[in-house]
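Notes on consecutive records. When two proteins share a document, each keeps its own sequence and its own token line. Never mix them. Below: protein one.
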Amino acid sequence: MISTKNLIYDLADVPREWAFEHYLNLTEKLTGQDIKMKSVFNTREKTPSMCIYIDRNNIYRFKDFSSGNGGDSIALVQSLFNLPTRGSASYKIIEDYNQYVLNNGHNAIRSYKQHSKFKVTDYEMRHWNTLDQKYWMGYHIGSRLLSRYNVVPLEYYVMTKTDENDVVSSITIRGNYIYGYFREDGNLYKIYQPKVKDSKFIKVRDYIQGTEQLVFDKPYLIIASSLKDLMAYQKLKINNSEVIAPDSENTMIPENIMNSISSKYHKVCVLFDNDEAGIKAAEKYKSRYGFEYVVLEMEKDLSDAIKVHGIDKVRENLLPLLKQALL
């Protein structure tokens, strides 16, 4: 007979990191470090886009940029097994952990602190060159738009971290196609490296892109997926709308900010990428704020569509979709 004396019945007694290690088959114990891996929700993914990380409350969470799923260990299990409620996911974790205990013994509740992370601590601007011109003009984005939205080429940037022993590590990254995204006050909020697959974007601070350029003199607002798409949208000359973009498609603009901005427009429409993650993100905006969204099927995103098909063809395809969404 199997003794049940040592079994647990409260999710609080399950080590917080166990669910991630167990259900994701991690090869290393979680002790405070971040992990990046291929999406478990998208088996076709080639470049890892799923992050396991500790939040500011010292709790492990996940974010899968391929599918748009994210949250704590309960959300992970709920998404993995398509369970209807957080309660049913919690029950499964307890049940599976008890089975694990019967086979392996209890895992001790670990105490750990968040590992320090590399952060951008310095950079140097440079002049524009012909490589920059060729890259941005491929999307019909010229110097005037780049200047308006404070995009500046960088000679290099420095990333630094201090470990638990107060040892400072520093990395200097140089190369072509490195761009700093700046606020109007001159503060850097993001680095964009379009030729680097694993680290295209390095976030420096929170910022809703395009908000400082809003004039609030149009009836409609478009929420684009990125600053590049935002600038590309300007080239379409759809003169009855303004445009902003969140940090990323998977970052919801906070409700208090969104309500304040949207109240100044007749209607708001979301224009994100046409892949699964983009559509899911747009559906979240519709669910939370009631904003309609459009899916432009021409290429993965708006800027790519303009690059491949040209401004006139994209405008011809996009305008009817926007009119229908904004009616």
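Protein two starts on the next line and is unrelated to protein one.
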Amino acid sequence: MIQDWPWAVAGAGLVVVAGRRVLAWLKQRQILDRPNERSSHSLPTPRGGGLATTPVMAVLLLAMAWQAASPLLAVLAAGSLALLVISWIDDRRGLPPGPRFLAQGAAVAVGMAALPDPVLSGAIPLWLDHVLAGLGWVWFVNLYNFMDGIDGITGIETGTLGTGIALVAAGTVLAPAGLLVAAVGAAFLVFNWHPAKMFLGDSGSVPFGFVLGGLLAALAASGQLAAALILPGYYLADATITLARRAANGEKVWQAHRKHFYQRALQGGKRHDQIALAILAANLLLLGCALAAANGIPAAGLAAAAAVVAGLLALLQYWAKKGAPT
């Protein structure tokens, strides 16, 4: 079995080095995210940190795939690079939803082909299992992008989610892969912690969502479905509830907005870093719930995770209302 820590250390170090060069290039080219009515920031900020995180993650995943003879890791690496290209075009010029979803669906379809085992515990035919799991994976890619709306949130989520995958899947090839992705996401906080010097952009958040979604699917296929649902519990709940609300109101759900729970807490007066740290605390509790589920008590782990997610959503809602004008 390949070692975990060298990959993570290499990933973190390379992201810091690459990030400095990418930041300088973005500034030189004036590739900036300029504030508008849907923004959560007030100053023009370089956008394109995915040019640093995604290539580092992909190259190291490819090397890991070669060493471990893992088709899944190779697919995740290649898919993340393909989505980097599509997402960079979207960042710079804008793309309609169709081409984006087509590219994501194609990448996910190849990823599902690399997962011969059922993802949903074998309760349904394999073809239906893979269709439903694939749709969930595509949704996860998009919600990961939707949730990248304040300083530090994606680095926090990626760091804790990747670490959780590594701990639950200890002793398998998923462990070093999860730890690598965690290190890449956490290292980006050097540039993205509040006040952010650089934003990730779709070129970073979409590939992160794709790779983590694939690792979670593989974790579920290994028999750890409960843990795979628990680890991203807050992201799943916030994005899904917000999407459902917007759809019920007849809004165009693919358009940018500021209606996520964390965004409304920011509008209520809380700082980016305060919200990110609250999410970190909840994610660490979710990690404990996932470990409990993985060690023979899935019902208790799921119940505790639901309570943690509900508590965080209630806190964010309280912050939003507390700062709202009367």
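For the record: The two ends are 59 Å apart (CA to CA).
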